[in-house]
Amino acid sequence: MAWNFGNTTTAFFILFVFFLSATATNTTTAYEAIESYGFPVGILPKGVTHYDLDTSSGKFNAYLNGSCSFSLEGSYELKYKPEISGYIYKDKLTNLSGVSVKVYFVWLNIVEVKTSGENLEFSVGIASADFPIINFYVCPQCGCGLNCSNLDHNYVSSI
């Protein structure tokens, strides 16, 4: 039995619907994408609305609704611009822009993040610091970090 659509508009519509359904099943969040490169979800704050990733070059952009800042462990203050960009590879983020940390009274851009065993190494270019990767299994919230009154955290399961 032959398909007879009567006109090309109907055929185009069917192909278009098929294409949309095929691409919709392959969508991932920015958090899932960074996990696939070996990073925990907590290196991004809650609220990433969408992202772009060129898998051939590693170039990525992640987008928030606006600027985001919070304190961690009472000593570090972080700021995220509405757009975060850089290059992502297995266990390494490079050429980062849009993320900064306050060290004493000076804001420094975080330019690189690497996994090193059970630690994440954050570099501001002239210096770096290691933190246990387990500290990044939860996404911080803009404004309150991990010390928010509502305890609605995005925990990562290792199952």
List the helices and strands and how they pair.
Blueprint: H1 8-24, H2 30-36, E1 48-53, E2 59-64, E3 68-72, E4 76-89, E5 92-103, E6 106-109, E7 112-116, E8 119-123, E9 128-132
Antiparallel strand pairs: 1-2, 2-4, 3-4, 4-5, 5-6, 5-7, 7-8, 8-9
Q: Structural class per helix/strand content? A: alpha+beta
Q: What are the segments in which pLDDT stays under 50 over at least 5 consecutive residues?
A: 1-5, 7-26, 151-159
What distance separates the N and C termini?
48 Å
Oligomer: single chain
Elements, N to C (H/E): HHEEEEEEEEE
Give the total of beta strands. 9
Question: Care to describe what's here?
Answer:
By secondary structure, the protein is an alpha+beta fold. Helix content is 15%, strand content 39%. The protein is built from 2 helices and 9 strands. It has helices at 8-24, 30-36, and strands spanning 48-53, 59-64, 68-72, 76-89, 92-103, 106-109, 112-116, 119-123, 128-132. Strands 1, 2, 3, 4, 5, 6, 7, 8 and 9 form a 9-stranded antiparallel β-sheet that branches. The longest helix has 17 residues, at 8-24. The radius of gyration is 20 Å and the shape is globular. The N and C termini lie far apart (48 Å). Mean pLDDT is 80; it is low at 1-5, 7-26 and 151-159.
Keywords:
159 residues; alpha+beta; 9-stranded antiparallel beta sheet; globular; disordered N terminus
Summarize the structure.
This protein is of the alpha+beta class.
